[in-house]
Design brief:
Elements (H helix, E strand, L loop, with lengths): L2 E3 L18 E2 L16 E3 L5 E3 L13 E2 L15 H5 L5 E3 H14 L7 H31 L2
């Protein structure tokens, strides 16, 4: 699993240098699997997908720090607990399982578990998109409040 940074992130940057996998990036920054690692060439992810290590990817988030899930190991093999969560002053580094449980609860309440696997994947993606849109709208409202617009 991985750690997820919520939209409560204040962009303090405390988490980024603590990550032993170089999985944390400032918002709006392109990333690659090779960044800060010894990985090169084509390799296979846990889900079986082949990826080019040096290929640059679009930022996962534009407004605040983000964690690339495929690079995050929750610090297993390095530390007893995820270091980003340990140093985060606003507790916005949470296990992805909490985020996925929220999605599952949403799907369960809407009757999503009686669907085919394809329908379920679609609903999960739609939920993620809706969640990202909701978080984006919330961030915009907060910015307007701060700027008194």
């Amino acid at each position: 699993m991985a750690i997820y940074i919520t939209d409560e992130c204040i962009n303090c940057g405390a988490c980024e240098p603590e990550c032993p996998n170089n999985a944390i990036y400032d918002g709006g920054i392109e990333w690659s699997y090779a960044d800060g690692t010894g990985v090169s060439g084509v390799f296979t992810l846990v889900d079986g997908q082949d990826v080019e290590a040096e290929k640059m990817h679009a930022p996962v988030e534009d407004d605040f720090y983000f964690i690339v899930p495929d690079k995050c190991t929750e610090c297993h093999g390095f530390h007893e607990e995820p270091q980003c969560a340990a140093v985060c002053p606003v507790d916005c580094c949470v296990p992805m399982t909490d985020y996925l449980q929220t999605m599952e609860e949403e799907l369960e309440s809407s009757g999503g578990f009686g669907d085919s696997a394809e329908d379920l994947k679609y609903k999960i993606q739609r939920f993620k998109d809706d969640k990202n849109l909701e978080e984006t709208n919330e961030r915009l409202l907060k910015k307007k409040e701060i700027l008194h617009v």
